[in-house]
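Reply to dn_fold:

You asked what the input looked like. This is it:
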Amino acid sequence: MVAIGYTRVSTLDQAQEGISLSAQKAKVEAYAALHGLELHDVLSDEGLSGKALKLRPAASLLVQMVKKGTVTSIVIFKLDRLFRNTREALEFADLCRKKKVALHSITEKLDTDSAMGTFFLTMLAALGQLERQQTGERTKMALSHKKLQGEKTGGRVPFGFDAYVERDGARNVCKLTENPTEQAIIQDMLGWRSQGKSLRCIAHLLMRREIKTKEGKEIWRVGVISRILNRFEAV
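and this is what came back:
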């Protein structure tokens, strides 16, 4: 049976989980040898997050090999190395079924050569997606709480504010405080907007006054002004 291995790591994986490409490859090779699979190659996507299959070079090549019928088995270290959502997992599993290609996942002890194996692939992929969505929800809730507490949660310091660091127990917390000069400029911008002036006109007025952006630039872009106004008009 002609087998192809697939491995993937992102920078986060390497730093936190220690599942390096070489470690995954060693597992794939050992699995193939144990199960009598003729391993022709191990394809790798290095330093890539779990994007869609078609956006990862090695994963895309793997899909093409399945479609062309040049492989009979695929061996991966773990399902989330290849799939990041249930839909892709099911579509790929269906493609493998049509092409009579068995998918082996070492960590989950999965082999889609059987109906039960295909069923478990569906369940595991769905559970994996659920876990990622729940993690995203928890992160969103944590960031919302930080914002309510006046903490800066990342990105650039917005026009109208200055950042400062405050000690909160055992950690340093970055918070925002209003910049009086910039707040006055924002009020002028809101006033001009209420008079019906266009964003481009407001940009010219700011530049005529020689007012600089938060980054110290002399040129004001319409998109920057739009974001500032939207932030304050929503309050």
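Strands lie at 2-9, 38-46, 73-76, 102-105, 110-111, 161-168, 171-178.
Hope that clears it up.
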